Amino acid sequence: MPNSSKKILLVEDDPELLDVMTTKLSLSGLEFAVAETGRQALDYISQNPPALILLDILLPDIDGLTILSELVKKEETKAIPVIILSNLADQASMEQAAAIGPYEYLVKTKTDLNELIKKIKGKIGAE
């Protein structure tokens, strides 16, 4: 069974952003898996808990906040670091995420991908 200790799960349904993100993660030498729906994300996490999750809030089925709520319920997933990457820049969404746990919340349009990669590497110890 492959060691998923440094693997990142990218949860994103926007095809263009997904393309940009997967290219950036690949070029950075990071191992990752992709989920395009909340259901895919939850299934993946239950089978292969990743080192970190990059999570979109607006997904076609189960939203990111619900995924966060599911993660904190389980002993084996509640400690997984999550970076929320969303276009929802409103205070209410940020507060909802903060109420669930101490997650980093980044707005897609204001996030530099090089900085994001540095944050990811820092959180998973892959300097």
UniProtKB/TrEMBL annotation:
One GO-annotated biological process of the protein: phosphorelay signal transduction system
Family annotation (Gene3D superfamilies): 3.40.50.2300
Occurrences of domain Response regulatory (ranges): 7-123
Modified residues (4-aspartylphosphate): D56
One protein family per Pfam: Response_reg
PROSITE patterns, per the entry: RESPONSE_REGULATORY (PS50110)
PANTHER family referenced in this protein's UniProt entry, alphabetically: RESPONSE REGULATORY DOMAIN-CONTAINING PROTEIN (PTHR44591:SF3), STRESS RESPONSE REGULATOR PROTEIN 1 (PTHR44591)
The protein's name in its UniProt record: Response regulatory domain-containing protein
